[in-house]
Amino acid sequence: MYTVIGLEVHAQLKTDTKLFCGCSADYFQKAPNSQVCPVCLGMPGALPVLNQKAVEYTMRVGFALNCTIPDRCKFDRKNYFYPDLPKGYQISQFDEPLCVDGYLDCEVDGEVHRVRINRVHLEEDAGKLIHAANGTSQVDLNRACVPLIEIVTEPDIKSPEQAAAFMKALRQLLRYLEICDGDLEKGSLRCDANISLHPEPDKLGTKTEVKNINSFKAVEDAIKFEQARHRKILESGQEIVQQTLGWDADKGIAVPQRAKEASDDYRYFPDPDLLPVHVSEDWRDEVRGQMPATPAQWRERFSKDYELPDYDIGVLTEEKETAVYFDQVTEKFNKPKEVSNWMMGEIMRLLKDHDEIKVSASDFADFLQVIDEGQINRNTGKEVIEAAFETGKTPLAIIEEQGLKQISNTDELAQVIDQLLADNADQVERYRSGKTGLMGWFVGQVMAKTQGKANPKAVNELLEDRLNA
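Above: the chain sequence. Below: its structure as tokens.
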């Protein structure tokens, strides 16, 4: 049996206001039904006004996904009745979406897979149902009318692993474009998976749709579950029932919800309150000119400008904030591999317990310069960076406060060493008689007398010069 998977991904846009009204689109953790007005409540006579920024953000996604953006798109009413849909219909796009015919490449086990994009269209989000333990349900319409894009793939995905890889690549892209925070747990990025199995490759069987997928692990788990369920039914000689299921992550099962609708069931028709949108070439050019660099462009530049290994580039560009930080540090301390080593080591370790990097890029560059000059050693440096994360102080301030700078002044070190050799003439004689292993003892004595602040390299050079004279 061959598996065929198509994804429908919904991403909330980070606009200040909602799609068709002036209400704040920042609804998370706000009091229920506090971010609403007659438009998003679906009051009779309330007229929608299109948010231009939402259209431009959608165009930005279209360009990044290599889509064509037609000269015209329009909005339609998608009719269905559900408690979280106050108007009894959703304003969406049906036969004239804003973006069509694109693709996104994703990597699985070192192989690049291209997933074609059927369309990217703009629509309003629905409200949210809150189910109480006593069996009652309430409706919060703060989310209603928040701008939402739907990214629909072609059935090009062949495995749960490819589906998860596509979702990760898409989330990274959306975050780099600065149009969606990509938070699956909050629901600002949501995924529905359409799955079918067929005995012949590249042919479609009867599909089912799994909703309520809110993590990358859930993407794989839900598809694997449905994949196994389809196979069992087909191998027993029965037929798949086309339906919509909800993924229950706690139980690890997909639960049937309803028969799957076709487009005719929604009775689409053009929204009479909204004019078609005409996209001029000048408008396209304006949006192109405002495009942030994509993850692929960042990776290409890091490879070309910094000559870093592919592994380093992958880690440093996983999140845009990390890539920008690396860029800023390297601009001041121009040793890319050294910066990369510290970021992939100590910085990534400390980020497991902290929400953000607690040291500015400029201060981190100054810190690396101090290590490069031998004023402190790497082990001390690790302790300094950890202290900087915990206290909020700059690394150089911590080094100064704790007196951690190494003594590299050869005149100062020479005085300590000359006194040490004068006080331990018998050890000097043993060394010169062939007991060269005593070098470690001499170095240790110098380090003890300087409270560990002596530059080891300078100490070794001065000792060898005097003991071998």
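The two ends are 81 Å apart (CA to CA).
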